[in-house]
Amino acid sequence: MALVPYVETAEMGLQRFHKPLATFSFANHTIQIRQDWKQLGVAAVVWDAAVVLATYLEMGTVELRGCSAVELGAGTGLVGIVAALLALP
């Protein structure tokens, strides 16, 4: 495990977390998530892991139709939104 301190002026691609809106396309829908790093910190941005998991769900490996799910500790909720869209008939 590595701990990398966040430096706001760093050139590591973290600037996208400061954009007020993140836009994604999943399950034939455009999803826009408001982000607010300054006010709410790490829970208020869409992390790469959420995008990877949402992509995995969209691949159809896991059947979601007719299922219930609870999303815990998922920040902005992108994965839960995608799962709900995929579960629609």
Automatic annotation (TrEMBL):
It is found in: Cytoplasm. It comes from the Eukaryota. GO terms for biological process: methylation. One of its GO terms (molecular function) is methyltransferase activity. Its main location: cytoplasm. It holds the Pfam family Methyltransf_16. Belongs to the methyltransferase superfamily. METTL21 family. This is Protein N-lysine methyltransferase METTL21A. It comes from Odocoileus virginianus (White-tailed deer).
